[in-house]
Design brief:
By secondary structure, this protein is an alpha+beta fold. The chain has 11 helices and 13 strands. The structure holds ligand MTE.
């Protein structure tokens, strides 16, 4: 998504992604047609995952553990689309704190220190405070939800998240009548997070929702994916997932949740207000100034598919925006 001092998404990223997809599809679907020829062997060698990426994947498995006692969510929280390959979802990431390239977050995963972890909940709440992650999660049963994730860069995935409804967590802190918005912040750790030593965004990464968006049943605080705790590159140990909005709203590695009366400043909106709005609802009719949003590429597949309004969650969320001009307030 690089913008000022690189921009969020540039043509280079799209090209890289095509090559990347080509490599995976090539390996998955076409290896047999090539097997046995010298050309094929060298092509496979050239196209295979780098040693660094393989090493990163091994170290990731050391950083995650299985999550038990997870119940499946009701059908309205589970799309039928085939789930994205776990390796793709954990090795093609946007997490600028861990690097700007798509494979950097997995390679730099060990730089994110997740233990101990606590979250400050403050602002317009009756019971503010800093709460250890275990205590934040303890009262809430974990559920698995299968959501589409649509990045503003025009690619998408389908992820089996594990988490708890954001509304249930917020309710425990007793929002006051002045709590109109919720602001989220990612960990600030310039010493360990290489991306935060670069002037790409005004760190820490910040995001926000209107209170009714935050209280919507689809809004999820995720602690896991694919049956395990979140890998660092996907936002361990706690991230937001708002499936009807572009992926940049789904802030990773959250350390602060602040309820407030005014609309919070958010990282991408601050960085490039003409390109990234506060609302950022997935909308095929509103192009990004530098590319169309009408279609998207599902990671793991060659073909493009039409982008769905609100990423396919229109029936559930459109009423939140009655009377708003979503072209202007994008
Ligand atoms: N959160 C933080 N803190 N830093 C980031 O760079 N990138 C966002 C979002 N959350 C980002 C972040 C973007 S642009 C997307 S598309 C999603 O994370 C990607 O999530 P994934 O890597 O788990 O697919």
């Amino acid at each position: 998504m690089l913008i000022r001092r690189p921009t969020p998404l540039v043509d280079r990223d799209v090209t890289d992604r095509r090559l990347y997809l080509g490599r995976r599809e090539f390996l998955r679907n076409s290896a047999w047609t090539l097997a046995g020829t010298a050309t094929a062997a060298s092509a496979l060698a050239a196209c295979g995952p780098s040693e660094e990426a393989s090493a990163a994947r091994e170290s990731v498995s050391a950083r995650v553990r299985p999550l038990t006692d997870v119940r499946p969510a009701p059908p309205r929280f589970r799309v039928d689309d085939p789930v994205t390959d776990r390796t793709d979802a954990t090795s093609y990431n946007n997490f600028y704190e861990l690097g700007l390239g798509k494979e950097d977050p997995a390679e730099n995963a060990d730089r994110l220190k997740t233990e101990p972890w606590s979250v400050v909940v403050d602002g317009e709440v009756g019971r503010p405070g800093r709460i250890p992650l275990e205590d934040l999660l303890k009262p809430h049963p974990l559920e698995e939800r299968i959501y589409r994730l649509r990045c503003v860069e025009a690619w998408s995935m389908v992820i089996p998240w594990i988490g708890i409804p954001l509304a249930d967590v917020l309710a425990r802190f007793e929002p006051t009548s002045k709590a109109k918005y919720v602001a989220f912040e990612t960990l600030l750790d310039r010493e360990n997070l290489p991306g935060q030593r670069r002037n790409v965004l005004d760190w820490p990464y910040r995001e926000g929702l209107r209170i009714d968006e935050a209280m919507h049943p689809l809004s999820l605080l995720a602690v896991g994916m694919y049956g395990e705790t979140l890998p660092p590159q996907n936002g361990a140990p706690l991230r937001l997932v708002v499936p009807w909005k572009y992926g940049f709203k789904s802030i990773k590695s959250i350390v602060r949740i602040r309820l407030q009366e005014t609309e919070p400043m958010t990282s991408w909106n601050e960085s490039a207000p003409n390109e990234y709005g506060f609302y950022a609802n997935v909308n095929p009719k509103v192009s990004h100034p530098r590319w169309s949003q009408a279609k998207e590429r599902r990671i793991g597949s060659w073909s493009k598919r039409p982008t769905l309004p609100f990423n396919g969650y229109e029936e559930q969320v459109a009423s939140l925006y009655t009377g708003m001009n979503l072209r202007k307030q994008f």
